[in-house]
Amino acid sequence: MTIHQLINERVQAALAAAGAPDAPAVVQPASKPEFGDYQANGVMGAAKALKTNPRALAEKVVAALDLAGIADKVEIAGPGFINIHLAPEYLARRSEAALKDDKLGIAPVKPLRVMVEYSSPNLAKEMHVGHLRSSIIGDALARVMEYVGHDVVRANHVGDWGTQFGMLVAYLVETSHAGDADLQLSDLETFYRNAKIRFDESEDFANTARDYVVKLQGGDEEVLKLWRRFVDVSLKHCEDVYEKLNVGLKREHVRGESSYNDDLPVIVKELRESGLLTEDDGAQVVFLEEFRTQEDKPMGVIVQKKDGGFIYTTTDIGAVRYRHRELKLDRVIYVVDARQSQHFAQMFTICRKAGFAPEGMSLEHVGFGVMMGDDGKPFKTRSGGTVKLIELLHEAEERAYALVSEKNPDLPEAQKHEIANAVGIGAVKYADLSKNRMSDYIFNWDTMLAFEGNTAPYLQYAYTRVQSVFRKAEDYDANAKIVITEPAEKQLAAALAQFEDTLNAVVEGCYPHYLSQYLYHIATLFSRFYEACPILKSEGEVRASRLQLAALTAKTLRTGLDLLGIKVLESM
Ligand code: ARG
């Protein structure tokens, strides 16, 4: 159990003993050091419900509260807050245990089968900045879930199907005849643009394109082969981005929209059999009472168009059905732009009603806001075009390289590049992961690359600072005892002990910024500890103990940054 859970349980028991068994204990880390390490704020609510004096109830609770060996001081403050001061001894033993454990002392969870679906670009074009947030938020969530012990399935639900692909295949055939298909495919953005120009200018070309769509849908091997070639090249572009971004998506995680193609008629048939379908103006529609139109009528969700074609929603329903039947998932997390929230809410509702997703399988749309430029408008190039993701990442590295070269001109070239990669990419990721994913944020190079403030470079630098201590401490003893006496030591140790609670919160709400904020807090506390408690200038037991706290700090920062997909460096 984490300290938080333990205290919560004990306060809960004390509340019960004091006559308030149903009142929540409301235990949280103390907001200020004066209030101890944890506060229990549930007494006021309990007193209100029992119509009794809160201060008197608090006294009863404290009298019944058994925190022997855990806390050395418990005080009542204000109208009935309970402030809990952890015993230094107890914190020291926990810190030692965390240091010895591979997983920093976190308890194994009951493993669930969790799918994190993320990135999911459309393969017709090259990945652009719009795919950045899903890719990095999803990857961080997958890493954290895996780390705490869940059985994680990563999924990249790429858009690899639909009418655009007929046009692209037609253009691929044309450029192959001209002998420059490879060259053209090296820039998908231009490839798409040129294909579109051909489509608009030539009736013949457009007809061929339409013919290919029909052939694709009918499973024509020749056309499928060309389509596969295109998809393969496009996926390679994505993989370059994932590699540069340090995002753990591989070919095996790809299961595109095309893979549900054969299920779509079945889905519609099953929806009809469940009585959920209505024909409306030739289209097949599911009307949902739960969603209302402006005229307060049930909203209709189309699953098959008048022309017989299926749509985005139908594919998503197929994917849910597959994920339940074949993958037997407990939890499916969709990391997709918040602007698609209605689509997901409706799609989930249809799946529940049709029995494609049983009660026990949780379906969660993990949305996120928009990445804005300095002008407060959605991020674009100067000329208003979409920014290719790979180019943005190259720019991040170039900027970081310039910074590193300025700071440390004498470093070997290879090391400068390594630092530039870790810092540049880390900065882009952390700028995103440090904010509540639901809010829009302004993408600003100078802020994210700053060495001060809540940034990746600051944290990476903090980590190297801790590591530099160890380069000077040849006597470091990994088995040394931790002895906590100073307030700065205690605050650091108490915060380090909150790692598991932090990860649990990330897993529960799918908010990576809890982890970012936590790491920033740890870095800040370490720097206070470092100022207040000399490490290398102290001696004996004190020195050995402080080195241990530094070691636990380093391990926590390294693990935490790794869970965010951010690289650390031994020096920079
Ligand atoms: N390919 C879609 C897009 O770029 C995102 C897919 C999200 N996932 C899903 N299951 N619908 O907008």
From TrEMBL:
One GO term under biological process is: arginyl-tRNA aminoacylation
The Arginyl tRNA synthetase N-terminal domain covers 1-86
Q: Where is this motif: 'HIGH' region?
A: 121-131
Could you tell me the keywords of this UniProt record?
Aminoacyl-tRNA synthetase, ATP-binding, Cytoplasm, Ligase, Nucleotide-binding, Protein biosynthesis
Provide a Gene Ontology MF annotation, just one. arginine-tRNA ligase activity
Please verify whether the record's keywords include ATP-binding. Answer: yes
Q: Which SMART domains match?
A: Arg_tRNA_synt_N (SM01016), DALR_1 (SM00836)
E.C. numbers: 6.1.1.19
Cellular compartments per GO CC = cytoplasm
Query: Which InterPro entries does this chain map to?
Result: aa-tRNA-synth_I_CS, Arg-tRNA-ligase, Arg-tRNA-synth_N, Arg-tRNA-synth_N_sf, ArgRS_core, DALR_anticod-bd, Rossmann-like_a/b/a_fold, tRNAsynth_Ia_anticodon-bd
Q: Which Pfam families match?
A: Arg_tRNA_synt_N, DALR_1, tRNA-synt_1d
Reaction catalysis annotation:
tRNA(Arg) + L-arginine + ATP = L-arginyl-tRNA(Arg) + AMP + diphosphate
Q: Which residues form the DALR anticodon binding domain?
A: 459-572
Q: What class of enzyme is it?
A: ligase
| Subcellular location(s) per record | Cytoplasm
Family, per the entry?
A: Belongs to the class-I aminoacyl-tRNA synthetase family.
Which NCBIfam families does the protein's record reference?
argS
Subunit comment: Monomer.
According to UniProt, the name of this protein is: Arginine--tRNA ligase
Q: What is the protein's species of origin?
A: Chromobacterium paludis
